């Protein structure tokens, strides 16, 4: 591995392992002729290079999906069928869907080649005075968890890595909406260290476990505590929940992406809203943005029956309050007598 600076990595040099040999084998083995490739936005700069490489090695037609792709919940099955694609190569995530995929999907996690030792060392100061550390990461860094564990143990910490569970594929892996690897060990740890780019996954761990969380971010080459972000997020959540309590007209917005089409949960939410004598509209959306919801002027509060992180992370962007399905119950059924923060409710899917 050449010795590269963080700046070079941030410019995209050899950051990810796209496992092209595996991709070539799968394409040949399945006799695919037209392939759709999907990457999360942060990896899309590599899309054309990947398309070129796959086309020249496999002699197949490659179509690059330009649409945003946020997770394994977001596989372009409809688009692939419409374009008569016979194989999807989905980079950057692990399998999430609990439905039969047609056309078939090959998941390439795209493990990051960025070193983590430096940022884990930087996290040590922030992790003290705690003694037992729960260690998790996004899929891009799960292969480095063993190394991170050894570093922390050498610094005197006891380290616990949660096993594979829920919708994840590896021990210690977390998603924005599924942190069961952290939940499964939260009773045994004082603090969590999350190895990830950005604060998105760390916030999910903090919201779900209520434990202090430190991020070791190999992309920025820094470690940071996210307590201020957590405080801001919770205060906004409470404000949205309080507004929902007094609202009269609700819009339950159901996602249409394969892993976000929570129609049953949306219908249950609607029934609950109607039972309180309030009005409710069902709305469907692929992408959630202020512009998409802007025309629905009559709606006081939107309930997101899709990715729960839309409400949690993007609430400040919307003109009207947006809440998760779990928060709807809290708003309607009341939170008097709730002691502390009903944190798991916020990310609750149903
Ligand atoms: S539902 Fe949201 S948080 Fe979960 S995998 Fe999809 S985009 Fe990520």
UniProtKB/TrEMBL annotation:
It comes from Thermoproteota archaeon. One of its GO terms (molecular function) is 4 iron, 4 sulfur cluster binding. Keywords: 4Fe-4S, Iron, Iron-sulfur, Metal-binding, S-adenosyl-L-methionine, Transferase. The gene is dph2. It is an enzyme of class 2 (transferase). Its EC number is 2.5.1.108. Pathway: Protein modification; peptidyl-diphthamide biosynthesis. Catalyzes the first step of diphthamide biosynthesis, i.e. the transfer of the 3-amino-3-carboxypropyl group from S-adenosyl-L-methionine (SAM) to the C2 position of the imidazole ring of the target histidine residue in translation elongation factor 2 (EF-2). The lineage of its organism: Archaea, Thermoproteota. InterPro entries: DPH1/DPH2, DPH1/DPH2_1, DPH1/DPH2_2, DPH1/DPH2_3, DPH1/DPH2_euk_archaea, Dph2_arc. Belongs to the DPH1/DPH2 family. It comes from the Archaea. The keyword Iron-sulfur applies. This is 2-(3-amino-3-carboxypropyl)histidine synthase. It catalyses: L-histidyl-[translation elongation factor 2] + S-adenosyl-L-methionine = 2-[(3S)-amino-3-carboxypropyl]-L-histidyl-[translation elongation factor 2] + S-methyl-5'-thioadenosine + H(+). One of its GO terms (biological process) is protein histidyl modification to diphthamide. Its cofactor is [4Fe-4S] cluster. Pfam families: Diphthamide_syn. The keyword Transferase applies.
């Amino acid at each position: 591995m050449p010795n590269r600076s963080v700046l070079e990595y941030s410019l995209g040099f050899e950051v990810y392992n796209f496992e092209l040999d595996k991709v070539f084998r799968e394409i040949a083995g399945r006799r695919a002729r037209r392939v759709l490739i999907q990457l999360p936005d942060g990896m899309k700069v590599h899309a054309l290079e990947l398309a070129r490489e796959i086309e020249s090695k496999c002699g197949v037609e490659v179509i690059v999906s330009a649409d945003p792709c946020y997770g394994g919940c977001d596989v372009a099955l409809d688009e692939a069928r419409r374009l008569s694609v016979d194989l999807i190569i989905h980079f950057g995530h692990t399998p999430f869907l609990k439905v039969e995929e047609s056309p078939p999907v090959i998941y390439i996690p795209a493990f990051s080649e960025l070193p983590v030792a430096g940022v884990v060392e930087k996290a040590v100061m922030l992790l003290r005075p705690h003694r037992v550390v729960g260690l998790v990461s996004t899929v891009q860094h799960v292969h480095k968890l063993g190394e991170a564990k050894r570093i922390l143990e050498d610094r005197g910490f006891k380290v616990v890595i949660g096993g594979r569970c829920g919708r994840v594929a590896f021990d210690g892996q977390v998603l924005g909406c599924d942190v069961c690897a952290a939940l499964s060990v939260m009773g045994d740890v004082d603090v969590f260290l999350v190895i990830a780019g950005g604060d998105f996954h760390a916030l999910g761990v903090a919201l779900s476990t209520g434990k202090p969380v430190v991020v070791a971010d190999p992309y920025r080459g820094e470690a940071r505590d996210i307590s201020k972000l957590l405080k801001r997020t919770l205060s906004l959540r409470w404000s949205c929940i309080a507004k929902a309590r007094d609202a009269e007209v609700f819009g339950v917005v159901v996602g249409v992406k394969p892993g976000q089409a929570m129609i049953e949960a949306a219908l249950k939410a609607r029934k609950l809203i109607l039972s309180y004598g309030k009005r409710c509209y069902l709305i469907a959306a692929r992408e959630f943005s202020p512009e998409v919801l802007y025309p629905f002027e009559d709606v006081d509060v939107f309930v997101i029956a899709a990715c729960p992180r839309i409400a949690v992370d993007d609430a400040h962007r919307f003109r009207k309050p947006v809440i998760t399905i779990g928060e709807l119950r809290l708003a309607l059924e009341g939170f008097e007598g709730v002691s502390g923060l009903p944190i798991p409710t916020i990310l609750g899917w149903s």
